[in-house]
Amino acid sequence: MTHQPRIDTSPHVSDEVRKTTCYMCACRCGINVHIKDGKVAYIEGNRDHPVNRGVLCAKGSAGIMQVNAPSRLRAPLKRVGPRGSGEFEEISWDEALQIATDWLAPIRRNDPSKLAFFTGRDQSQSFTSFWAQNFGTPNYAAHGGFCSVNMAAAGIYTMGGAFWEFGQPDWEHTKLFMLFGVAEDHDSNPIKMGIGRIKARGARVIGVNPIRSGYNAVADDWVGITPGTDGLFILSLIHELMRAGKIDLDYLARYTNAPVLVNADSASSEHGLFLRDTEGKPLVIDRNTGRPTAFDKPGVRPDLNATHEADGITHRPVMHLMAERYLDPQYAPEAVAGRCGITPDKIRRIAAEIARVAFDEAITLDREWTDFRGETHKTMTGRPVSFHAMRGISAHSNGFQTCRALHVLQILLGTVEVPGGFRFKPPYPKPAHAHPTPHCHSRPDSPLDGPHLGFVRGPEDLALREDGSPARIDKAFTWENPMSSHGLMHMVISNAHAGDPYRIDTLFLYMANMSWNSSMNTRGVIEMLTDTDQNGDYVIPRIIYSDAYSSEMVAYADLILPDTTYLERHDCISLLDRPICEAEAAADAIRWPVIEPDRDVRGFQTVLIQLANKLKLPGFTDADGGAKYIDYADYIVNHERKPGIGPLAGFRGDGSEVGRGEPNPGQLDRYIENGGFFVSHIPDAAQYYKPWNTAYQDWAVGMGIYDAPQPYVFDLYVEPMRRFQLAAEGHGERQPPDHLRDRIRRTLDPLPIWYPPFEDDSIDTDEFPVHALTQRPMAMYHSWGTQNAWLRQIHGQNPLYLPTKLWRQHGFAEGDWARVTSAHGEITVPVAHMAALNENTVWTWNAIGKRKGAWALSNDAPEVTRGFLLNHLIHELLPPRGDGLRWSNSDPVTGQAAWFDLRVRIEKAPAPKESQPTFAPFKSPVGQGPDHLEWKVGK
C-alpha cells in the first residue's frame, strides 16, 4: 500500500474579485483583482474583456508590486532645500492646494500663458486639455511630441487614422503581416495574441527592424534595416509594385484622391492645389461623361488616367504625379539597397510576396453594403496583407514622411478597411478635416478660444501671435514644425529656460520624468531646472509636479501633489480620448478604487478638479462660483462635452442608452457590474469600408462619434502640405522666415519623400559611424515598472548590445565596457554581444538606468551602478552647422523628437566602478526600500 501526501489543489485565493482595467502599459487590458483581507492577493486577466480576453503579461501580474512599491509618495511635499537636493517637508492637502492656488490665480488673472501645463503618459488627455483650456493657457500638450506624433499625424492626414489605438490588422483573415519599428512594449497582449492566431493558420510575419527581439524574433523573415532608411525601403517597394502593375486601381479610383485633378499652372497662386467646383469640392474626370465632376457625386466613376485641358494648361490627376515620382530609377532596389542595408534581391522578394498575397490570395465575403455615392455592392473583397508600425520608424527627422509612405503603401495595395487588411477602431476613421484646428489666443481671466491641439489646414492655422512670434512656449504649430499635432513636450524646459519665445512663471507637469529619461540632453535639462538668474532666483520660477512615485523629477519640483496608484483611483478610458475599441466594436472602460490608499494621496484628476473649484474656472464652476463636480468620478458621470455626449458611452440615460443620452447617476456602478468596460458591436454590414460605408456612417452618428455622416476619400496627396510649400514660394499673407523657406519647400512635400536624417548632415559620419537606438522591453513600460520588485528581476540592468561586426572589430569580450561618444556627450557602459542586429547599429533597453536617491532604490542597486541612459548622448538641438543657427533635433513637419537619428563612435574602455556619467545622490522623500521585500496576503 502506497502513501501520497494530501495536497490542496484549490487553495482559497481571495475573498472577493474586483474587475477593473490594468495600467501597467497602454494596452488597457481587463483584470480580475483578487482581494484577501482587504489587500491585493492576485491579479489575473479578465476572460470577458474585449482587449485581452483573459491573457495577462508579466507587467500586468506584477501590478501587485506596483501598488506596494516602497517608492510610492506618501503625502504632499513642499521643497525646503535647493532644487535637486530632494529636501522636502510633508504638508497637508489644504496647504498644498492653497500654495498651488496662490501661484496659479495671479497667472490666470494677468497672463494665462505664463503657465505651461504638460502631461506625460497619462490616459486622461481629454480631461487635462479641458482643464488647461478653461484655465486659459495656450501651453498644453501631452507626451506624443516625443513619442509617436509622426505616426499618428501622418496616418490621420493620409487616411484618417494610424496604427495601434487607431486601428488593427484583420487578424481573422490576414495572410501576410509586416511590422516596422515595433518594440514589444506597445499593444503587447493584442499583438502577441494576433501573431499567435495568424501563425497557427500558416500566415507569414515579416519584421522590419534593426534589432531582432520580441515580435521580430518570431517573424518568419527579418529585415535588419539601417536606422532611418525605412522610408527609402518602403518607397522602393512601391516602385516595384507600380512597375509590376500590382496596385489596386479600382480601389484607388473609388476611395482615394488618386483621380483628383491637380492645378498645373505654375504661375497660379494655387499651383499644386486641387481643382474644385463652385462648392469647393475636388474635381475628378467622370469616366461616364469625360467631364470634370465633384468626386462624391452619386454615380460618378473617377478616371485615374484622364487629364483636363484649360487655357492651354494640362491639369493631371494625383495618380500621374505618383507614377512619375515612384517609377523613377532612384527608388529601384539597386539604388536604395546599400543605404538600407538590404540586398536588392531581398527588396524584390518582399515586394513580390506582398503582391502575390494581395492579389493572388484575395478573399471575398458575401456581405452586401452601400457606398457614399449610393452604389450597392454585393460582396466585400479584401487583400489579406496587413501592416503595423510604431516608434521605430517615427522617431526620426524624416519620420513623418516615412510614416506617410507606409500608409500610402497600404492604400496602393487596397488593404485599408477591407477583409484581411488594416481596420480602423472607433472613433476612427476620422480625417484631418474632421478634427479641430489648434487654438492659441489667450486673454486674462478667460478660457482659451478653443482646443489647444488639432490639425492645421494651412498657414492660416498656425499658432502665431500678431507679430509672427510663437504663441506657445514649445513653438508647436509654427513655421519650424507646422503640423505638430501633439505639441513638443521635449522643448518646453529648454525654451522656458531660454525665455524663447517668452518667459513663463510656473511649469506644471504630470507623470513626466523630464529630469531624467524623458528628456534629451539630460544633464543640460537638470542644469536648466536648477539655474538661477543674477538675483539668485530660479530662471523657471515655480515647478509643480504630480507623480505616484519618487521619480527623478520629484527632486526638481517646488510642490509635489502625490498621485495614487492605478488600483486606488477612478480613471476613464474614453471615446473622447484613447478608448479600448476593437475594429469590430466601440468600447470604453473605467478604473475604480478596488483598494483604498494607505497614504495621504489623491488621484491627480480629482486634484485638478479641486484646483479648478478654488480658481473658479469656467467649465468646472457655475456662474455663481459653485462647483459642478466634487471629484473625478463625479466629472466622469456628469460632464457633457456636448448635449448627450459624455466621457463614457455606455449605460447612459436610464442605463439602456448607448453613445448618446443624459447623464446616468448609476453609470459607474453599471460599469463595475459589467467588469469595468462597455462594448457596442458594429453591425455586420458596417464592419468594413468604414469611411465610405453608409451603414457605418449611420451607426457612428448614433454612437455620437459623428454628428452627421462624413464620408471622405484617402489623401495620397496631402493638400495642406502643399499650402505650406506655396507660402514658402512667396504666396499668401502669412510668410515663413527666409531661413526656413528652403526647408519647408523640401520637406513638406504633399507626396511622401525620403531624405537622410538631419544628424547625418550635421556631423562627420566618419567620426561617428555607428547608429545607436533604444527599445522598451516587453516586461516594462517607460520607466514605470523599473522600481517594481518583480520586474526588476527581469531587467535590473541594461548592457549596450553590439553586433558581431563591431564586437570583433573592437576586440570585445564578455564583461567588457565601452566608451560611447556622440557629438554631444560621452558614456561608459557595459557591453554584450548580439548577432541578430544590424551590423552598424548598437542598442540598449530604455529607462533602466536610475539616479541615486530616486525610486527608493539603494545606492548600489544594479539600475544605479550598471544601468544607464543613452539620453546623455542626445541633444534637443543639432550640432552647429556653421550657418549661425542651431536647428532643432526633430522632424521639420511635426517637431517629433528625433531620438533615433543618434550617431556615435565606440571604443573599448577600462571598467569603471559604475556606469558613467554618475550624478551625486539626492535625498529621498520616501527613504530607501527594505533589503528584503515580499508580498504575502493572509495565511
From TrEMBL:
Keywords: 4Fe-4S, Iron, Iron-sulfur, Metal-binding, Oxidoreductase. SMART domains: Molybdop_Fe4S4 (SM00926). Residues 432-441 have a biased composition (Basic residues). GO terms for cellular component: cell envelope. GO terms for molecular function: 4 iron, 4 sulfur cluster binding; metal ion binding; oxidoreductase activity. PROSITE patterns: 4FE4S_MOW_BIS_MGD. Residues 429-448, 911-939 are annotated as: Disordered. It is found in: Cell envelope. Residues 15-71 form the 4Fe-4S Mo/W bis-MGD-type domain. CDD domains: MopB_CT_2 (cd02783). It holds the Pfam family Molybdop_Fe4S4. InterPro entries: Asp_de-COase-like_dom_sf, Mopterin_OxRdtase, Mopterin_OxRdtase_4Fe-4S_dom. Its cofactor is [4Fe-4S] cluster. Belongs to the prokaryotic molybdopterin-containing oxidoreductase family. PANTHER family: DMSO REDUCTASE CHAIN A, TUNGSTEN-CONTAINING FORMYLMETHANOFURAN DEHYDROGENASE 2 SUBUNIT B. This is Anaerobic selenocysteine-containing dehydrogenase. It comes from Roseovarius azorensis.
